[in-house]
Amino acid sequence: MDFKKMTPIIVRNFHYDINEEPKVKSEVNVSIRQVVQNDDQGNEMPESKEGRYFEIGVPFEVAPAPGMFTVSGLITQVVQLMGYFGEGKDLSSADYQLLSRPLVEEIETLTYEITQITLDQPVNLNFKSNFDELLKNDDQSKDED
Predict the structure, then answer these.
(1) H helices then E strands: how many in the chain?
(2) What angle do CA 23, 123, 76 make, to 5 degrees?
(3) What does pTM read for this prediction?
């Protein structure tokens, strides 16, 4: 799927906490919603003939093992899906991965940088394996259809 980035990646919020007691959590979700383009006066513009606009959002709460800290927040980006006029819910897992991967990489980068400062040792998060599992499950469900 081809897409055009309409906004930079936006860190809506990012929160870092040291945990009082160790806890491990890995909750990273992907949401998508259609958005409309407005002109300079705030009036809704007609739908583009090139494809629909969507806001990709990645809300997250992660406390990697051994559970010393938690990072949470929301990262978004608006994209235009070229030649696509369907609903966001109709996209495949592979498309979700393609659209959300840059946002997930931003979570990984922010976590690495903040832990380098706060813990004097950077922590690498790697969500790639989770995406690979998602793709495998999507392929299996297509085979069952």
Answers:
(1) 2, 6
(2) 85
(3) 0.82
Give 69's contacts (C-beta < 8 A, 6+ positions apart): 16, 17, 18, 19, 63, 115, 118, 119
Angstrom CA distances, 62 to 14, 72, 75, 97, stand at 11, 6, 14, 18
Question: pLDDT for 79-101, tens place per residue?
Answer: 999 999 999 889 988 898 899 99
**pLDDT band, residue 128 (cuts 50/70/90):** low
Whole-angstrom Cα distance, residue 62 to residue 73? 9
By C-alpha distance, which of 123, 144, 135 is closest to 68? Answer: 123
Nearest alpha-carbon partner for 28 in 77, 65, 62? 62
